Amino acid sequence: MCALKRNALGKGLSALLQDNETTNNIPAGEPAISGSILMVPLDEIETNPFQPRSDFDQTALQELADSIRLQGIIQPVTVRRAGERSYQLISGERRLRASRLAGLKEIPAYVRSADDVAMLELALIENIQRENLNAIEIAISYQRMIDECHLKQDELGDRVGKNRSTVTNYLRLLKLPPVIQAAIRDEQISMGHARALITINGADKQLWVYRQIIEKGLSVRKVEELVREVAAEPLKKDKKPEQQPYEYRKIADGLSSRFGTKVQLRIDDSGKGKIEIPVLSRNDLNRILDILG
């Protein structure tokens, strides 16, 4: 569905799922017609193979299951035909999982026509619209839509109802070091902190500022001030070192972990050399001196 009608762009999943076919209620056991609603046995529904979401809050699922036991399914799931008596989920995996927890045997479902690309896009857009989605999950979904649905950033913005600069800021998060991405995902730092970090050139500087955020609990405003300070004191770029023996690389990695920055270990054939520890600011120098004792 990467070639969707323009009037559906920016309106979210509900607009993408609408078509001109008549919606009919069909009882279980009858042939499914595209655009219809019918009761589908749970054991005939396969999960969406393009589902980008892997983590589901079990407490929230159980609460939804309890609600379903009392009130039933308010909003049908959406499926496509996969065989004569089998269906593939397009959207509504939380409802599907909770229905199974609630002990239901069948569930109301919209039957829609959708190819693999449409399945992927619909799953990604539904995932993006979750209220509790973290910034990294949004960024990954945006990147998948660009890569796998062959969308440009402005087209992606139309799909999800965001302007291009917002889309760009999310995508730039994926260029941050993995440890910072994990901190954003786990909500250890906010999107405001992340926006400040992505303006810094160089992973070493980004990591140093990130550590200051964690260690000192810096506000977004303080981080922005720190970023300007770091930008005013650029590190001298070293020439790319020649490949070292494994034992030297292991020692350098251990020192980098200890000092929280990229440590260079330069040893010549005679065994002589030097250890280089980059310093980003006076505060950083004091931190390293404290570690050295």
TrEMBL record:
Q: Which SMART domains match?
A: ParB
Keyword Ion transport found: no
Please give the GO cellular component terms listed in this UniProt entry. chromosome
Q: Name one GO molecular function term.
A: DNA binding
Q: Which CDD domains match?
A: SPO0J_N
Q: Name one Pfam family in it.
A: ParB_N
The record's annotation in SUPFAM superfamilies points to: KorB DNA-binding domain-like, ParB/Sulfiredoxin
What is any one GO biological process for this UniProt entry? chromosome segregation
Q: Which UniProt keywords apply?
A: Chromosome partition, DNA-binding
Look up the signal peptide feature and give its range: none
- The highest taxon in the source lineage is Bacteria
Alphabetical list of InterPro entries matching this protein = Chromosome_partition/occlusion, HTH_ParB/Spo0J, ParB/RepB/Spo0J, ParB/Sulfiredoxin_sf, ParB_N
Query: What positions does the domain ParB-like N-terminal occupy?
Result: 38-128
- Entry keyword DNA-binding: yes
NCBIfam families assigned to the protein according to its UniProt record, in alphabetical order: parB_part
**Family from the record:** Belongs to the ParB family.
- Protein name, please? ParB family chromosome partitioning protein
In its UniProt entry, the species of origin is given as Anseongella ginsenosidimutans
Q: What is the lineage of its organism?
A: Bacteria, Pseudomonadati, Bacteroidota, Sphingobacteriia, Sphingobacteriales
